[in-house]
Amino acid sequence: MPAAPQHPESHAGPEEIARAVAILRAGGVVAFPTETVYGLGADALNGGAVARVFALKGRPAGNPLIVHVTGEEMAGRVAAAWPHEAAKLARAFWPGPLTIVLPASRAVPKAVTAGGPTVAVRCPDHLVTLSLLEAFGGPLVGPSANPSGRVSPTTAAHVREVFSGADVFVLEGGPCRGGIESTVVSLVSVRGGAGSARVLRPGLIGAEELSIVLGHPVEEGSAAAEAGPAPSPGMQEVHYAPAARAVVFEAGDLGRVLASAPRVEVLTHSGLIVAAPHTAIGLPSEANAYAARLYAALREADALKPDLIAIERPPAEGAQWAAVADRLARAAKPFRP
Ligand code: TXA
Ligand code: MG
Predict the structure, then answer these.
(1) pTM, 2 dp
(2) Before 277, cis peptide (omega within 30)?
(3) How many CB atoms lie within 10 A of CB 117?
(4) What share of the chain is helix, strand, coil (3-state, %, to 5)?
(5) Ligand 2 centroid – CA 150 distance (Å)
(6) Atom of ligand 1 minimally distant from the CA of 182
(7) Strand pairing of 118-122 and 140-141?
(8) From the CA of 110, which ligand is nearest?
(9) In angstroms, rounded to a whole number, what is the distance separating the alpha carbons of residues 299 and 302?
(10) What residues contact 255, with CB distance under 8 A and at least 6 apart?
(11) Any ligand 1 atom below 6 A from CB of 66
């Protein structure tokens, strides 16, 4: 028999998972680790528990939640149907950072779907949370575990900074490997083969990768084009924002950026050097590694209380950099010299 998987010291084990399940069964809220960011979990089929998550986050009622599942079987309990395209994507990318939007089953409370006809489902790739879902035995909502509009948490400590232990029991799972939220793809208009799949939120899995698996083109982006009263509001509002004023700048504008505020905290992936009183945080030059570090770096920058956070514009190549650029566009304004 293979040895049971070992949980690193810092990861929640069976005792914490049992306690989390008891809290969830009582309609409470548990923060869980995933490979993207930490989520704020509650019983997806309990309207009262879901309402508690909206209240804790200060999330507008019109912004629907992602439902986390152990896999295709559980996804079939919250989606009204499980088309061939969904099965193809789930088999290729689950567990993993891909959220699939489909028509919702009637079992899903209106609060989860923001009153809309669709539901978003994903199977997260983290042993702690897969164990939690397995032990709970049902789907869990899981918006990112941050107050609405702020930077998503990539460690358990980030979650504890903003939510009290009395409100939210936090399961440890170490730093998130992916670092930015999952790709959200809608299959709503694919039914009957009439329409195409559409990426509503870019992530580390790009449209091209999805289209290779589906065998037909996948559209990138406009949430506004998605039918129904509940598009992907995460795509429309200012989001993922640090507290300090933040700009994205071209490396050639560094001098002007530094001259524009008394104390600037620079985030650089190309090793730009700055002189006191300004300081800099170095980020990786490879897209996946950069994404994994980005939110923690924004928090570190914010904690230094600079007059301005200035983020060097990342390269414009490939799906992963495009997903990073999407998050930066929501966190910061372009620098205008
Ligand atoms: O990586 C992730 O997806 C993380 C981890 C915790 O799983 N979760 C996450 O959840 O980012 P949240 O609530 O912060 O973002 C969910 C996004 C929002 O942009 C929301 O509008 C969209 O998914 N969404 C949820 N349900 C939807 C639906 N039925 N149709 C379209 N978009 C939906
Ligand atoms: Mg979020």
Answers:
(1) 0.93
(2) yes
(3) 14
(4) 35, 20, 45
(5) 8
(6) 1
(7) unpaired
(8) 1
(9) 5
(10) none
(11) yes
